[in-house]
Design brief:
Strand content: 5-15%
Number of domains: 2
CATH class of the largest domain: Alpha Beta
Number of strands: 9
CATH topology of the largest domain: Malonyl-Coenzyme A Acyl Carrier Protein, domain 2
Number of helices: 15
Oligomer: single chain
CATH architecture of the largest domain: 3-Layer(aba) Sandwich
Shape: globular
CATH superfamily of the largest domain: Malonyl-Coenzyme A Acyl Carrier Protein, domain 2
């Protein structure tokens, strides 16, 4: 339990949460976090050294929106933040990740060893880098309202809230769908991605990803995970099935149903372990959070100022009843 008498749950964000400079303020000020980040980079080998240089550079070689930058960094920061909290004694009631965030959750819960999780991430983004251009767009509409206006090849990629549905697909049909939605009065906002995550455009990545997972040791989670793909507690047989993990790039993310499943089990303190505060902001729409039965906090706070990260992190640790090392 936390100092507020609430069971802690860690939330791990996915694509779209990234922003320039994310995590760098905390990296330079908190040695424990820096060591956890460097451990992930080391597990990546030469890829990690290149990624670290680009992440810390004011003039990166590749933009952060590129899949070979955003996905590994989201994994790295989420894993490092979670690792610090666990090492300081936090005992989460559950973990819930959004897209790549579920791989973070699985690595912290021991489904994957760190090196195995890193290999999965690097292998996946290498394959994703060759996918034809596309993207994702958040729509202020229900799933039903959105689905009725989808063009061929465009699909629902995530259900983030009752009136926030993310659509995904190749560039041209996605643009046509967005035009139709806006014509009908719906607000649409692009997600920071050049890749059509959670759509059939990535189906080939699933088949090749299954090959890369074959023979890899997978273990039941040591910390409960709420699946962002089934909206239910992750079963041991799912966690140890390579097919479950291989289908993630194509399957829709059911964040809101998963959140509802989680909060139906009692009040929680939801701690977002990653850049920004997107998942906590979504969670604040939930009736249990609005009523004060559950609450949320962000480890790094809102995006923009690396200098504020340390203050947000230390304030969050205090609310989680965690002291420094």
């Amino acid at each position: 339990m936390t100092g507020e008498g609430l069971s802690p749950v860690l939330l791990f964000p996915g694509q779209g949460a990234q922003y320039p400079g994310m995590g760098t303020g905390l990296y330079r000020a908190e040695p424990q976090f820096a060591a956890a980040v460097d451990e992930v980079f080391a597990a990546m080998g030469p890829n990690g050294a290149e990624l670290r240089t680009d992440w810390l550079s004011e003039a990166p070689v590749l933009p952060l929106v590129h899949v070979t930058r955003s996905q590994p960094l989201l994994f790295t920061l989420g894993h490092a933040l979670g690792r610090v909290l666990l090492d300081r004694g936090l005992r989460p009631a559950a973990l819930l990740g959004h897209s790549i965030g579920e791989v973070v959750a699985a690595s912290l819960a021991g489904v994957f060893g760190l090196e195995s999780a890193v290999r999965l991430v690097i292998d996946r983004v290498t394959r994703l880098a060759s996918v034809p251009a596309g993207g994702m767009v958040a729509v202020s509409a229900t799933v039903e309202e959105t689905t009725a206006r989808l063009r061929p090849e465009v699909e629902v990629g995530a259900v983030n809230a009752p009136r926030q549905t993310v659509i995904s697909g190749p560039a041209e049909p996605l643009a046509a769908t967005v035009e139709a939605l806006r014509t009908d009065g719906f607000v649409c906002a692009p997600v920071a991605s050049l890749t059509p995550f959670h759509s059939s455009a990535l189906r080939e990545v699933v088949s090749t990803g299954l090959e890369s997972l074959a023979g890899r040791e997978l273990c039941p989670p040591s910390i409960p995970i709420v699946s962002g793909y089934t909206a239910a507690p992750l079963k041991d047989e799912e966690a140890t099935d390579p097919r479950y993990w291989a289908r993630h790039p194509v399957a829709p993310v059911l964040f809101w149903p998963a959140l509802e499943s989680l909060l139906s089990r009692g009040p929680h303190l939801l701690a977002e372990c990653g850049p920004g505060q997107g998942l906590v902001t979504l969670a604040r729409r939930h009736p249990d959070v609005r009523a004060g039965r559950s609450t949320g906090l962000a480890l790094l706070g809102p995006s923009g100022d690396p200098g504020e990260e340390v203050r947000h992190f230390r304030t969050a640790c205090a609310r989680l009843s965690l002291a420094g090392p």
